[in-house]
Amino acid sequence: MNKSITVIGAGLAGCEAAYYLAQKGVKVTLYEMKPNKKSPAHKSDLFAELVCSNSLKAARIESAAGLLKEEMRRLGSICLKSADKSAVPAGGALAVERNQFSQYITEQIKNHPNIKIVYECAQKIPENGVTIVATGPLTDCALAEDIKKTVGSEYLSFFDAAAPIISGDSIDMTSAFYQSRYDKGEGDDYINCPLNKEEYENFHRELVSAERAPLKDFESDLTVYEGCMPIEILASRGTDAIRFGPMKPVGLTDPNTGRRPWAVLQLRKENCEGSMYNLVGFQTNLKFGEQKRVFSMIPALKNAEFMRYGVMHRNSFINSPELLNINLSLKRNPNVFFAGQLSGVEGYMESAASGILAAINALAYISEKEPLVLPKTTMIGGILGYITDPENAKKFQPMGANFGILPPLETRIRDKKERYLRLSQRGLADFEKQLAEFNNQ
C-alpha cells in the first residue's frame, strides 16, 4: 500500500491515530515536540502522557466509561492494550501506573516500521496530503496561529469555566417546576429549583467556604470574564450577589406556594431528549466532591447524578459543530482531520477514541471509501454525534462519555443499573452491526 498520512501530536489521540494507521500498512509521519519542548502541563518525555489522574474511569460494561472502552477495544486501541498491561488495583475503575502506561505506548510507536517520528513542533498544517491534528488543548505558537487561519479565528474558543451537567431523571420534580421567566418561550424550556430564605443562606454559606480546585502555575494568570464568572467567586461578593445574578427569582412563580421563590437555580436542557440538564450560570472551580456536596443542598438536586462536573482551566478547542463533518474532517478542507481535546471531546479515553475514528476515516478518505459513522446508540457515536451536531454550535462546550447523550430506550426502565446495562447491550449490538458493514465495503 503506497499511502501516507501525517499526524501532529503524540498524545493519546495522536498515538491512537498513528498506531491504527501503521497497523493498516499506512506510512505515518508523526510530529511531536517532545523532548525538545514541553507544554507547561507536561513533565515526561514519553508519548501519551497522563497529565492529571491515573484513572481511566469505570471498567464495568454498564457504565458510560466502560462502554466507551469496550468499543475502543473492539477497534484495536493501543491505549487499552497498554492500560491492561499497566493496570493497578482501583476497585471498579481501570487505573494505571502512568509511566508504564506511557512507556509501552511510546515503545510501540517508536519501534513501528511504518511510523517516522519528527521531533519538532509543527509550524503549520501541511498543505498537501492528509493530516490528523491532535495537538491537545494547549496548542500554541505558530501552529495555533495556523489553525486559527485554517478554521477561522472566530472559531477557536477559549474558556475559563463551565457549569456542571446532571442527569434529567435524577432531578426531584416534587421540589421543582417548569417555567420560563415571565412565561417567555416554551413552558418546559427550564426546570426551576427554588430555595426559601433559610435554604438559600445555608447554601450560600457552604458555597463560599467550599474548597476550590487549585490552578496550575501556567493557568494562574487567567482573566476571569464577567460572563463566565465561577459561581463561588460571584457569591463571595456578598450574600445577595448570586440572588440578583444567576439565582434571581424574578419572573417566576412557584406553583407549590403561589409566590416568587427567595432564590432559584434554573436548569436548561443540554440535549433535545431532556436526558441532560445544565446548571445555568453555575460555572465553577470547586473540587468535584465539593460540587456534589454543595449543589446537592438545593432541594431539587438532593439526588442529582452529575454527568459532567464543572471545570475551570485554560483550554482551547475548535467549535466542532460548526467546523467538522461527522467523520472528523474539516468542512472547508476535507484533507484535514481533528482529534483529541482540540476537537471538543473531554477526557482521556474520549480523546483516544476520537484519534482512532479520525484514523479510520482518514484512511477511508484516501481509499475512496465511505466513512465509519457509528450509530448514536454507541458511546463513540454519541460523543462524535454531539460534537459535530450543528445545533450545538452556538454554545458549544466539550463533552465526555455519559449515557445522557444516547437516545433513550424504547421501553422505560426505572432501575438505573438495569437501564444502563440495556443501553450498553444495545450500543454494542449496533456497534458490531455498523462495523461489519463498514469492513465489508
Characterization of the model:
With 441 residues, the protein is of the alpha+beta class. The protein folds into 2 domains: 4-159 and 315-439, 3-Layer(bba) Sandwich (FAD/NAD(P)-binding domain), CATH 3.50.50.60; 162-312, Beta Barrel (Elongation Factor Tu (Ef-tu), domain 3), CATH 2.40.30.260. Helices cover 31% and strands 16% of the residues. The chain contains 12 helices and 19 strands. The protein has helices spanning 12-23, 64-74, 78-85, 98-110, 141-151, 197-209, 231-235, 288-295, 320-323, 348-366, 379-387, 416-439; strands spanning 4-8, 27-31, 55-58, 87-88, 93-96, 115-118, 131-133, 156-158, 161-162, 165-167, 177-178, 190-195, 263-269, 276-279, 306-308, 311-312, 316-318, 329-330, 333-338. The strands form 5 sheets. The protein has a 6-stranded mixed sheet with strand order 6-2-1-7-19-18, covered by helices on one side. Helix 1 (12-23) runs parallel beside helix 10 (348-366) and helix 2 (64-74) packs parallel to helix 10 (348-366). The two termini are 17 Å apart. The relative contact order is 0.16.
How is this fold's topology laid out?
Blueprint: E1 4-8, H1 12-23, E2 27-31, E3 55-58, H2 64-74, H3 78-85, E4 87-88, E5 93-96, H4 98-110, E6 115-118, E7 131-133, H5 141-151, E8 156-158, E9 161-162, E10 165-167, E11 177-178, E12 190-195, H6 197-209, H7 231-235, E13 263-269, E14 276-279, H8 288-295, E15 306-308, E16 311-312, E17 316-318, H9 320-323, E18 329-330, E19 333-338, H10 348-366, H11 379-387, H12 416-439
Parallel strand pairs: 1-2, 1-7, 2-6, 7-19
Antiparallel strand pairs: 3-5, 4-5, 8-17, 9-16, 10-14, 10-15, 11-12, 12-13, 13-14, 18-19
Helix pairs in contact: 1-10, 2-10, 2-12, 3-4
